[in-house]
Amino acid sequence: MESTTDGLRERVRDILRRHPRSQRAFAELIGLEATKLSKSLAGTRRFTPAELTGIAEVGNVTVNWLINGSDEADTVAAAPRRSARTEVELTHSQDAGRYQQILDAAWHLIAERGYHSVRIADVAKACGTSAATIHYYFPGRDDLLTETLRYSVRLAFDRQVAELHMIDDAHERLLRLVELQLPTPGLLRLEWSIWMQVWNESTLRPELRVLHTDSYNRWHDTIAHTIRQGQQQGVFAETDPDELAMTLTALIDGLGIQVMTDRPGRSVEGMHRTLRDFVHREIVRP
């Protein structure tokens, strides 16, 4: 559960003040009962990680800002690089919510249908708007793919910060990080779909590789940082953290692809078991 600090509550209130709808309507948007939101704001209840992630998404902020008051604050996960183009548009647009609506629709369509099967017209239809509006935010169809990857990375970062920032034990945190990467049905499986398509496109199109590398480095650095903390705590073996992170992320990728493609004998449960065994065998101090 989440630690509810005065600063966190005040930042949530700030989002509510800027939100065009009522507090009750805001609560409904994040799937939270209005009474629970009121209790959390009063300090008699803690926000859950899922609620913090929802507040951040609807409020167009990061969970890191909600918890620590700054996007740049050092936290449990490496921060993703921001899109300068997107930041300018969101800063100067009178309808930042429209951008988020378009991005969310594009993200779901690409994850569910595949990048090459999604047209600008499909995104416009899903949003109930025109193709011209889509092009205002995403000049070309390739921009949809790159921004949906950034969106996936941002979602993962917010989820990791919300879930992990109260876990001091590096061993427990690493195991939770692994769980957060499993392609379980729903949001995580859709994120895996986006990643697999980006891997494929990056193989064929060199111009996408810089974004892919930056995004992947964030994940690698998060794992390596956690391993270093575990070594400082004396719970992890004194092996090169970057080497361990490289091996663990490669194992996650390979098993995830096999689960996503329904290879016989592969399952989320089996993937989880194999990864836990690897952590205990290769990373935890004997």
TrEMBL record:
Transmembrane segments: none annotated. Keywords: DNA-binding, Repressor, Transcription, Transcription regulation. InterPro entries: BetI_C, Cro/C1-type_HTH, Homeodomain-like_sf, HTH-type_TetR-like_transc_reg, HTH_TetR, Lambda_DNA-bd_dom_sf, Tet_transcr_reg_TetR-rel_C_sf. GO terms for molecular function: DNA-binding transcription factor activity; transcription cis-regulatory region binding. It holds the Pfam family TetR_N. Residues 96-156 form the HTH tetR-type domain. Gene3D superfamilies: lambda repressor-like DNA-binding domains (1.10.260.40), Tetracycline Repressor, domain 2 (1.10.357.10). Residues 119-138 bind DNA. This is AcrR family transcriptional regulator. It comes from Halosaccharopolyspora lacisalsi.
